[in-house]
Design brief:
The chain is mainly alpha-helical and about 450 residues long. The protein is about 60% helix and about 5% strand. It has 18 helices and 6 strands. The strands form 3 sheets. The chain has a two-stranded antiparallel sheet. The chain has a two-stranded parallel sheet with strand order 3-4. Helix 7 packs antiparallel against helix 10. The longest helix is centred in the first third of the chain and has 37 residues. The relative contact order is 0.11. The protein binds arginine. Arginine (ARG) binds next to helix 6.
Length: about 450
């Protein structure tokens, strides 16, 4: 393809380091789509004949079907997907194929292919996240009134509901989804027609190819068009944050499914046994979900490092962009699918959740708030009185609601019977009616809002 000025072929090691066909064949469909749009535009502008364009466009469909059926033989000597496709096209349609690369370079070609590929993965991520959010909403709906402990520092803090906890993840994954939506809108411009770096002297129509490929507009600067990989970086950054969220629920599932917690039962479909300990049921899928963020972050850091300090415009360094993005995309899509299945299947266990919710004087704040509300005590004093009552209960090995009224009055004489109404965990969660709070009424309103918007 570029042999004109060379008298010897490349060294075998040169071929090994140079070739990208081992992985960029993943973009075959996008490469052919881009070339078909380019050929149609060249003909529309009278740069090539209609009959050549027709031969090229039909030949490219034949190449695509050969690739998709596995009949295509990829060659490392032909470096990459672009030259593999073009060589095969030449074999199929003859000299007309030689006109396809008019007013184009592999630099704008690869930028176009890769953008199309990444755009497709952004769409897949958006769809996968919607499905995941729906699974969380369904869990929230089923357990909107189910009490469980809310933690800070992984110490029981205040009672919350299962529904509230599930809906926290809906908010997190909704932000992830919006990051992909934003990035998609920003990246949806066409580099095609930037040619090698400076544009071209042929009278091309960049609007036409942009339109045919579903881009909003052509990129406005040809140097930027061939040297930009922000779209890949934004994709990876969005994947990283999403994978971070996945690792957090994964970690909770590992903890919650342990015999010490028994908060949830993970379905057999997403668990494994031990080859030596017959009693074991391990949360392997959750552990792998917790781990995937490692390689996804690795991909982001790798590409940031590859791009750092690159002078304009194209440099071959940029060929190293693809494996990082391919691996991260595969990891994220698999993670989203696995997590969606696990969340849909898992069963919360109400009894251990309730028991744990009531443990560790989790309604102490309710008591302090009640002292403020009912007795008009300053919060600092209420905090002190409550602390004294917690100490008394702790010394006697009982929970707060098990202290008698006389015992409470020995600390604060004006406490009355009504105090017991705020001490149970159900009373506690029902009272947190502030916007975004854990009261079932609040959580149900959020569920309804998301149900509507996820339709
Ligand atoms: N395989 C190359 C890549 O992925 C295609 C672009 C090659 N361009 C060049 N000027 N050698 O980046």
């Amino acid at each position: 393809m570029w042999g004109g000025r060379f008298s010897a072929g490349p060294d075998a090691i040169m071929e090994a380091i140079n070739a990208s066909i081992g992985y960029d064949q993943k973009m075959a469909r996008q490469d052919i789509e881009g070339s078909r749009a380019h050929a149609a535009m060249l003909a529309a502008r009278g740069i090539i004949s209609d009959s050549d364009a027709r031969a090229i466009r039909e030949g490219l469909l034949t190449v695509l079907s050969e690739i998709e059926t596995g009949a295509f033989e990829f060659s490392a000597a032909l470096e990459d997907i672009h030259m593999n496709v073009e060589a095969r096209l030449t074999a199929l349609v003859g000299p007309a194929a030689g006109r396809l690369h008019t007013a184009r370079s592999r630099n704008d070609q690869v930028a176009t292919d890769f953008r199309l590929w990444v755009r497709g993965q952004m769409d897949a991520a958006i769809e996968g996240l919607s499905a995941l959010m729906q699974a969380f909403v369904a869990q929230a709906e089923a357990g909107a009134d189910m009490v469980m402990p809310g933690f800070t520092h992984l110490q029981v803090a205040q009672p919350v509901t299962w529904g509230h906890h599930m809906m926290a993840y809906v908010e997190m994954f909704a932000r992830d989804r919006s990051r992909f939506i934003d990035a998609r809108a920003r990246m949806n411009e066409s580099p095609l027609g930037a040619a090698a770096l400076a544009g071209t002297s042929f009278p091309i129509d960049r609007e036409m190819t942009a339109d045919a490929l579903g881009f909003e507009r052509p990129m406005a600067n040809s140097l930027d068009a061939v040297s930009d990989r922000d779209f890949a970086l934004e994709f990876l950054a969005s994947c990283s944050i999403c994978a971070t969220h996945i690792s957090r629920i994964a970690e909770e599932l590992v903890i919650w499914s342990s015999a010490q917690f028994r908060f949830v039962t993970i379905s057999d479909r997403f668990s494994t046994g031990s080859s030596i300990m017959p009693q074991k049921k391990n949360p392997d899928a959750a552990e792998l979900l917790r781990a995937k963020v490692g390689r996804i972050n690795g991909s982001l850091i790798a590409l940031l490092t590859i791009m750092k300090g690159l002078p304009l415009a194209y440099s071959k360094d940029m060929q190293e962009d693809k494996e990082q993005v391919f691996d991260a995309a595969d990891s994220l899509m698999l993670s989203l699918a696995a997590l969606t299945g696990m969340v849909a299947d898992m069963r919360p266990n109400p009894a251990p959740l309730r028991l744990a919710a009531a443990s560790g004087f989790s309604t102490a704040t309710d008591l302090a708030d009640w002292l403020v509300r009912a007795l008009n005590m300053p919060f600092r004093d209420a905090h002190h009185v409550t602390g004294a009552l917690v100490k008394m209960a702790e010394d006697q090995g009982v929970d707060l609601h098990e202290l008698s009224l006389a015992q409470m009055q020995s600390v604060e004489p004006s406490i009355g019977e009504a105090v017991y109404e705020v001490l149970g965990v159900d009373n506690s969660v029902a009272s947190r009616t502030s916007y975004g709070g854990t009261a079932p009424a609040q959580v149900k309103a959020q569920i309804a809002r998301w149900r509507e918007s996820l339709k």
